[in-house]
Design a protein that fits this description.
It comes from Penicillium rubens (strain ATCC 28089 / DSM 1075 / NRRL 1951 / Wisconsin 54-1255) (Penicillium chrysogenum). Keywords: ATP-binding, Glutamine amidotransferase, Ligase, Nucleotide-binding, Pyrimidine biosynthesis. One of its GO terms (cellular component) is cytoophidium. It contains 20 helices and 23 strands. It has 580 residues and is α/β, with parallel strands linked by helices. It has two domains: 294 residues, P-loop containing nucleotide triphosphate hydrolases (Rossmann fold, 3-Layer(aba) Sandwich); 267 residues, 3-Layer(aba) Sandwich (Rossmann fold). The strands form five sheets. It has a nine-stranded mixed beta sheet with strand order 13-12-14-15-23-22-21-18-19, sandwiched between helices. It has a seven-stranded parallel beta sheet with strand order 5-2-6-1-7-10-11, with helices on both faces. It is globular, with a radius of gyration of 25 Å. The relative contact order is 0.11.
């Protein structure tokens, strides 16, 4: 097994996940099987209880893991299927060690960070690295490990020590490190100077902790000047080719092309003794995948037609809260050979209360909503801003605007329909409107109000298309033979099964259910360009080279090319326009 560790310095959020994913994609392009691990030094057991406003979205894996959003980057770029074990947290390891200590596992020894905690980290990494991540079920050739946080943080120290020990155990020929550092421009602007001192200090910190980066990936606004590259190389005792410029581009999907141009693949393979000219079944597949990636990314540079999509949500102040949703929209736009402009609308600004406190915010939000080609309402929890979401849904329904509601978005769609079409003014949700006498959204059976996480529906579950729904715009995207799909879930509320018959009579059709036939998975209005709600989260399975059909259908309807999509999918096209 070969290990590539991607660490970060200077500031957090500099793009470790994108650099790690891009390096993995380049290795895949040469036929290597790549797996990934994200290490998070926080004490939380997983990401499930963390606020999306502070930490970004909670990403969900097939097996129901609530993990760091960077695992979403890995899956989207590499088209792999990861598990909850691919996200390692300090809290998870401490919990395991303490549980062992309480049962006498350590036979009275003093349990310490070194060696017990650091050895446990290495054990987790080595076990997880062997888990197959693609359809071939082959053991991975390379494991890319992203170390969360910033080198120098107190909580990162045990993990850096553990990785230094892992390097010693597996041999330096099987272990390399890429360090991502930020190069600021002072003063900011085109005439500013690229400052290397933060990068120098960051490399020094890494080395003093026991690791030695092979490459330093410098995040910067513009490409590094030759003089800046030479200075970093001189001050960090590196060759100039070991200093990689990761500068801003039109999209993050250009980063793999940027890294390839600077020969990062050749440097990694030479150091790790990975044979680029080997004969292997994955090589042709990797080449085909890379060609498709390059085509899609470069084609975006020549597209002019831009489609505006409104994302109406509760947490829009932190765009990472809806990272998978925004990326899924981008994937669909690339397939449709369009550009996309996502308009972020805080749902609270659509409410009358905002008009009384800030008429400017209110009118801007409504202007933005009325000017877009399609509207997405993603998931969330709690009562905040739900009034504004319902108003947005009403506008999309009555003005025939393509609409997609996900999880909470679907549930509020049902509430809106019951109130404004079925004439039930107090229709509500047990979560959001406990005082209501007509709950169209209810807790799932067995809900535990003391600890709602015990009854959270997580991970991949099947959805079966209902008989007689061949007319469905969404179903047509999957093709006539498909009667069942599988999607990832994260919810604890559902449509009241006692209300389904009334909803359908009123024109809100049920298109998909779970295998029991009791849980409603997909709803759709027939007489509408595209008005669909899904209980699952299709964004978790969208990939750059294989966009979610739910998002693809929605975006195509907004771009007025929906009728072309089913045939293109059946023919296996990577895009509506293929110019190989």
């Amino acid at each position: 097994m070969k290990y590539i560790v991607v660490s970060g310095g200077v500031i957090s959020g500099a793009g470790k996940g994108i650099v790690a994913s891009s390096a993995g994609l380049l290795l895949q392009s040469k036929g290597f099987v790549v797996t990934t691990i994200k290490i998070d030094p926080y004490i939380n057991i997983d990401s499930g209880t963390m606020s999306p406003l502070h930490h970004g979205e909670v990403y969900v894996t097939d097996d129901g893991g609530e993990v760091n959003l960077d695992l979403g980057n890995f899956e989207r770029y590499l088209s792999t299927t990861l598990q909850r074990s691919h996200n390692i947290t300090a809290g998870e390891i401490y919990l395991d060690i303490i549980s062992r200590e309480r049962t006498g596992h350590y036979l009275g020894k003093t349990v310490q960070v070194v060696p017990h905690f650091t050895n446990a980290i290495q054990g987790y990494i080595e076990r997880t690295a062997k888990i197959p991540v693609d359809e071939s079920q082959a053991e991975p050739d390379v494991c890319i490990i992203e170390l969360g946080g910033t080198v120098g943080d107190i909580e990162s120290s045990p993990f850096i020590y553990a990785l230094a020990q892992l390097r010693k155990r597996v041999g330096k020929e099987n272990f390399v490190q890429i360090h991502v550092a930020y190069v600021p421009v002072v003063p900011p602007g085109a005439s500013g100077e690229q400052k290397t001192k933060p990068t120098q200090r960051s490399i020094s910190d890494v080395r003093s902790a026991g690791l030695s980066p092979l490459l330093v990936a410098c995040r910067c606004e513009a490409a590094l000047d030759p003089g800046t590259i030479q200075k970093i190389a001189n001050m960090c005792s590196m060759e100039p080719e070991q200093v990689i410029s990761v500068h801003d581009g039109s999209t993050t999907y250009h980063v793999p092309l940027l890294l390839e141009k600077q020969n990062i693949l050749g440097i990694l393979c030479e150091y790790l003794d990975l044979q680029l000219d080997r004969a292997h079944p994955h090589v042709e597949q990797g080449k085909r995948m890379w060609d498709n990636w390059v085509y899609l990314v470069r084609s975006q540079d020549t597209i002019i037609d831009t489609i505006s999509i409104a994302l109406v949500g509760k947490y829009t102040s932190n765009k990472d809260a809806y990272l998978s949703v925004s990326k899924s929209i981008e994937h669909a736009a690339m397939y449709c050979h369009k550009k996309v402009r996502i308009i972020w609308i805080d749902a609270a600004h659509l409410e009358e209360e905002t008009y009384r406190t800030s008429a400017v915010k209110y009118h801007k939000a409504w202007h933005d909503l009325c000017s877009v080609k399609g509207i997405v309402v993603p998931g969330g929890f709690g009562t905040h801003a739900t009034g504004g979401i319902i108003r947005a849904i009403t506008w999309a329904r009555t003005n025939k605007k393509p609409f997609l509601g996900i999880c909470l978005g679907m549930q509020l769609t049902v509430v809106e329909y019951a109130r404004h079409v079925m004439g039930i003014p107090d229709a509500g949700s047990q979560e959001l409107h406990p005082e209501s006498k007509n709950h169209v959204i209810v807790y799932m059976p067995g809900h535990n109000q003391e600890n709602s996480r015990d009854t959270m529906r997580l991970g991949k579950h099947p959805c079966i298309f209902k008989d007689g729904t061949e007319w469905s715009k969404l179903r047509s995207l999957y093709g006539p033979p498909i009667s069942q799909i599988e999607e990832r879930h994260r919810n604890q509320y559902e449509i009241n099964p006692e209300m389904v018959e009334e909803l359908e009579k009123a024109g809100l059709a049920v298109v998909g259910k779970d295998p029991t036939g009791k849980r409603i998975e997909i709803i759709e209005i027939r007489d509408h360009p595209f008005f669909i709600g899904v209980q699952f989260h299709p964004e978790y399975l969208s990939r750059v080279l294989r966009p979610s059909k739910v998002f693809l259908g929605f975006f195509a309807a907004a771009a007025q090319c929906l009728e072309k999509i089913p045939m293109a999918l059946q023919q296996g096209q990577q895009s509506l326009v293929e110019e190989y």
